[in-house]
Amino acid sequence: MASGEAIIEVKGLTTRFGDNVVHENLNLEVRRGEIIGIVGGSGTGKSVLLHTILGLKKPDAGNISVFGLDLTTMPDDERRLQERRWGVLFQDGALFSGLTVAQNIQVPFREHLNMNPVLMDELAAVKIEMVGLRGSAAVLYPSELSGGMTKRAGLARALALDPEILFLDEPTAGLDPIGATAFDELITDLKKTLGLTVFMVTHDLDTLRATCDRIAVLAERRVILVGTIDDMLRSSYPWIREYFHGPRARAAFAAR
Amino acid sequence: MAKTAIAPDLEAPKASYRTEVRGRELRVMLSGDWVVAPVLSVDDELRAFAEASHDADEIVFDMSGVGRFDTAGTWVLERTAAQLMARGIKARFDKANEAQQTLFDKVGEGAYADPVRIPDEPLVVQILARIGAAVLVLADGARDGLGFFGTVVAALGRTIRHPSRLRVVSLISHMERAGFDALPLVCLLTFLIGAVVAQQGASQLARFGADVFTVNLVAIIFLREVGILLTAIIVAGRSGSAFTAEIGAMKMREEIDAMRTLGLDPMDMLVVPRVLALMIMLPLLTFIGDIMGLIGGGVVAVTQLHMSPGVYIERANSAIVFWTFGVGILKAPFMALVIGLIGCQSGLEVTGSAESVGSQTTRSVVRSIFLVIVLDALFAMFFTAVGI
Questions:
Q1: Average pLDDT along chain B
Q2: Interface of chain A against chain B, CB under 8 Å?
């Protein structure tokens, strides 16, 4: 499990919706054990990239390999085995509305492992506690949760099988600053303890600064720059300058 | 990474332990990968281990042989240690590396709280409780329905006094969707039922040599009852459910709240146009349904009874008086009101989840079809009483 080895490799990816080309010849490499943040203006296809890597959308050209395996050509049943090795937190949590929080977390256990119900309840309680929810949240339905609780419950479900890669779509959007900071710390902690690789689509400059090892900038249908915050700050590319030197960015980076 | 063709963490590896006695200390030597899948197989053993009696002052879990380690592994070990401690046996972990230690710190006390469980009631109590709850729901539904009826009548009254409040575009769009677009379905079904009634009627009446009265049968039953009932049920299934789903989805996305904050009345915006559209369109649909039913009956009369079209029309004409038709068409606006009210009210009762939209839509259709038939029965009693 050498860190630095590529765990996700996107090569020459092209995706389009009808005539609208979202990505053209896009390349990106995510290394094992890092937290990578994907940024870009609205409509640059950040979420589309995430969905394509997850296999929710078929690429029109190019290859995507995860764990060194080409997922685009893999048969479905093998793919399902690989999918246990990652967890996804969707933007609005995407909890199943007919199930309680605990049942939501147990869905991967039921689906993939033959686990006895007692251990399943215990592990659900462990995950609930780990993401910072109260134990009493276990029996609540998604409609009874606040925005922050929904995200945490979604994260608990994503972490159910202790995945190697965690995909996060706008994890801190809609959270209050205290909740967002706690979430950042949670992600960093989990990365340290579980050796997670985190692929994060985000707009939150504080999150980028606090958690990300590297940042990839999406513009002009491809990844125009990958690097650390310092690389971003040094870049002369207009959009990157505006993004990382704007008033919000100054406030976020003043803490450094 | 050649061997990763199958997920390595979930297939091959095993988690295991063996015990060594060292003086008054019992050492539990852990080995293998203590991650979620392999941990399942040692979970029962560990539970038994925690319950068993041990002749030792201290139990030490030796982590030095552990390969991969995750939260599931952490949990079963911490649980075992906690169970031992609770029985007064000292238990600790030894030789945990930094990452393992962080996991022990992270997966902590909070998880020991027993998950909340809802106690099972005896079956009789459950059955009685469900009956009771259903009665309460029924009573609530009746009260809310009446309340909503009042609100809508008030809103309709406002609209009549201030016609400028009426959303004309919305009204016409709903008239098209609930009325015009339903035409093919209504025409086809009423035509078929008209034909079936005529065909069955003819074969029964022929026994008395009275098959010419098939025309009276079709004309009266269709104009008075079947035409309106069939049309109303089609519309309830088609438009009532659509109203609930549309308004329910809007409720879920907080659009209704947004309207209120913008000073728009959801009654005016959503409910009045829909209810009014149905009240205008259902009589028209019924009229067309009546005609299609008569044509269906006519086709059977001409082909099976060898009646000429002219004779069919003339017999029909003599069988029908104005009120035969009037009774049917008079019911239409009332049924439209019921369908519209229930469709909209069920939509507004949707709560947060997507599931609730589904269950409300089902309820809306069931309730409106039920009430349409009840209303029809009440009208039948009324018209008998007034003698038409």
A1: 87
A2: 67-69, 78, 81-82, 84-85, 97-98, 102, 112-116, 119, 121-130, 135-136, 138-139, 141-143, 159, 161-162, 164, 189, 192-195
Segment 49-108 of chain B within 8 Å of chain A by CB: 70-72, 74-76, 79, 99, 102-103, 106-108
Nearest to B46 by CA among B68, B82, B76: B76
Q: Which range marks the domain in which residue A225 is found?
A: 1-85+165-256
Judge: B116–A113 Cβ closer than 8 Å, yes or no: no
State whether residue B169 sits within 8 Å of chain A by CB. Answer: no
Q: Are residues A6 and A76 in the same domain?
A: yes
3-state secondary structure at position B85 = helix
C-alpha–C-alpha distance, residues A156 and A198, integer Å:
15
CATH number of B2-112: 3.30.750.24
B251-265: pLDDT as tens digits: 988 888 888 888 888
Q: Report the mean per-residue pLDDT for chain A.
A: 84
Are A76 and A143 members of one domain? Answer: no
pLDDT tens digits for range A174-224:
788 888 888 888 888 888 877 889 999 988 888 888 888 999 998 888 888
Same domain, A14 and A115: no
**Where in chain B do CATH 3.30.750.24 domains reside?**
2-112
pLDDT at B196 over 90: yes
Query: Residue B356: helix, strand or coil by DSSP?
Result: helix
Contact A221, A45 (CB under 8 A): yes
Q: What is the number of residues in chain A? A: 256
